[in-house]
UniProtKB/TrEMBL annotation:
Pfam families: MFS_1. This is Riboflavin transporter MCH5. GO terms for cellular component: membrane. Belongs to the major facilitator superfamily. Monocarboxylate porter (TC 2.A.1.13) family. Residues 277-471 form the Major facilitator superfamily (MFS) profile domain. Keywords: Membrane, Transmembrane, Transmembrane helix. It is found in: Membrane. Its main location: membrane.
Amino acid sequence: MVSHLGVNSENGNLGEQVLHAENEVVVVEEDVSEKLEVSKSELDDEAGLDSKYSYLVMFGAFVNILAVFGCSNAFGIFQEYYLNTLFSDKPASDIAWISTISISVSLAGGIMASPIMHRIGIRLTFVLGSLSASLGLILASFSTGSIAALTITQGLIFGFGSSLIINCSIFMPSLWFKKYRSWAIGIVSAGSGFGGLKYRSWAIGIVSAGSGFGGLVVGPILENAIRNLGIKWAFRILCFMTLAITLTTSIIFKPRQPGFKPANKRLLNMKVFLHPYTLFLCFGGFFAELGYAVLSLYFTASMVAIGQSRSTASNTILAFSAASGISRLLSGYFSNRFGPNTVLIFAMSATSVLVFSMWLPFKNFVVYYVFFVLTGLLCSLFFPLGPVMIANNYPLGEVSQVNGIMYVFYGLSTLIGNPSLGAMFDKIGHRESYSSLIITCGVCFIASAMILLLQLIYSRKYMPDLKTGRI
């Protein structure tokens, strides 16, 4: 009996052990199944990264930026024509409102792109921008008799459409480029590690280069159109060009993951906005944009003031645009080699030195030309490297909004700065001297460099795990 009970007990224990073992097997199988599901999900999440289609998207974004920023970078041609021909009897401070509203809304309006994309998707947001920008240009062709009318059409309407085009185009490389993965090891978490980010920084740099080369393409078109056909047809040609390019590229603009939308429903996420890294970027960009505005709006006019022809002065924009485009193409290399923050500190400081050593003391064509080419290589680096720093260091769902916040500060810089620059030229320069504007330009770039230096110190102390590798 005892033995029987013992056997039964052992058998009972054995049964329990077998049952326990079976449970363990089931658990193991469930764990394996779970892991396989996770791996499959991760693989699906990474599908399409750095693919051939990624490069098609990048090319489309490049062409969009070329068209839209080309109009902005060529605004010096508009400004010179407005000052010396169309509104020669009007105060420069009044004329400045056209460029002020156009550029500031183009930049600051981008903050609206993220909530719009969340509601209607990336492609429809981009199409809305395309139609709005084209409408602004065609209406501007019928508004050349009034500063106020041009401020609304070329400024507000075109600016709003441009802001959506710019934000969507800058955002797309972040969706389609992250890193090349080792299939043997498995999926590496998105965005981590310096090796993967180098491709994204190159992609954003190439897209941003469109804004540099834009002036190279749009500048001659605009100048020839104004000279041969008049200002009205110049606007219409820009309208047709913008509409054709942006509507065509909208066909290829889609999120890599079907149904993806930015996470931000609200216009402004205060937690993201008040992050010190965001604030350093924004205020550094504020002063960089203000210094850039002086160069883009008044350099060609200063060339005319030292005795050069309008055609010669306009041609310097081509050299500046070419230098800017080459610099932006190489920004990815500089970013990976030295770190984007370090590159920007050097670029802003060197630009300030050039302003005070070449533009301010001299009134010589050769010196001016060399100065403009060198500044083209340096001063525009904030525009490609700012989005690189954002794409590298923020979650993907926040990238569009942080880009928008940074561009708001660009826009505020234009909104506050351009009328002030116009008033400065009227009252201090008496519409003849550019010295006060040149000094302001140099001070702005050194201020940007100092803020970026503080950002570098902060990053090293409080953000040791920055995903950018080199800071």
